[in-house]
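Side project, low priority. Logging it here so it doesn't get lost.
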Amino acid sequence: MADVNYPIFLRDDSGHVIFIKSIAQFRCNFGKKDIVKFTCWDSTGRPVSLFYENREIQARIISDTNESEKLRQAIIQYARIHGNVGDDLPDDLDTLNIKNLHEWANHNAAECWKARESNKSKYIEHLKKLAEILSPINLLSNLTTLLQHYLGRLLGYYKPNALDTAILNAFYEKLPAPANEILIKQMKIFNHYHHRRSKAGSVMSFIYFRSFGLKNLDDECKLACYSWFAIPVISAKISNNADNSSPTARADLFIGLGEYYELRIDTPTKKIFGTKKPPVDIIRITDIKVLFDPMNPNPFPSSCSDDFTNLPEWVRNRLANHPNALIKTPLPADLRNHIIDYYDLPFPNDYLELMSYADYIGCHDSFEILGLSRVWSYLTPRQYVIVLGEVFGEGYLALLRNAAPGVYFIDHNLDHIPILMGDSLEKALCRAIDEGADSIIETSAEYNE
């Protein structure tokens, strides 16, 4: 059976259709028990099955039947149910590709959700929550989750440690008001701090557990920046005050959906301090940088453009046969320089040149290059990955923290071993498109050593 062409689209029982860029993103946001909730398609409209194997969630094609029209109808139904669009459909509905159709539906659903949240009665909301809690179907699952949460809290598993608290306190001092006050307010509400560790570092997710399940925060406690994916907002260098020979780590605080989302450190704590839970007196926090004010609803202004003339020739050649290609206008030069300084990464020179012409370049059936404001990251068991782009159905083009500089290719379907492709985004992208993942893997030292 053919490989899955990412992104994939997931529809749940309530009619929501979710856009997932990769199986790695799904693993970051969902667990084993979630895979039964979704009907799935890949970007070409083929049905996809999610399953659990080798202690990881995997995806595979069920059949080569093209269900693109079924997927389109699911997205339209999503907009009708959750976006309240009725028959007010786009004039260019028939020519919209699936990704742009989903963006339209998602925007309407988000706007409808915000309006509904601001107008709904708290009394009715409490009744709904009570009915959900007492539902026979959910009661056993909720009780199990409740027991796990409170036993974990009792044993100290879901509490921030001294390092977490020290970093958050330092971030509070540097964040602009009122974002810093909202940080304190949200940290008082969050009561389930979930730690995940790997050889690449650690992540602490902030969760609000109330009654019998995980809950969203009330609107008055939220940030104005309502990003649908996790983006960093402030960072710092972390080191051992008692041992200057120990490595220096980087900590980033991420936000998403109007909430402070997680604290991520790019080096295992034990390597820095000799213990997973260092005492506060040996923790040194320096070089704090704020990427943007999270109370700014649009910190990275960019818009769609149809002007491809200024793009480098190699990009125009790649877009020539893709009439549905999309680009976004570039960010101002001072903002680009600020983002580059914040990330402190060896971005390829041709990537930085490209960012002076566009903040996003993509065609849904081939590839995309993410702008500086759109890069996203995740931790594998071995690496801290920062994604610069993707060749759909093949893999990511990415940078790695704490590794040799250069552009890495990371295959979607194997075990995420990064393959160094050189220091040019152009060469890495063209090779991934022209040769494909299988050829790159067969000739790579990383997979064959």
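Brief comment: The longest helix spans residues 98-119.
Revisit when time allows.
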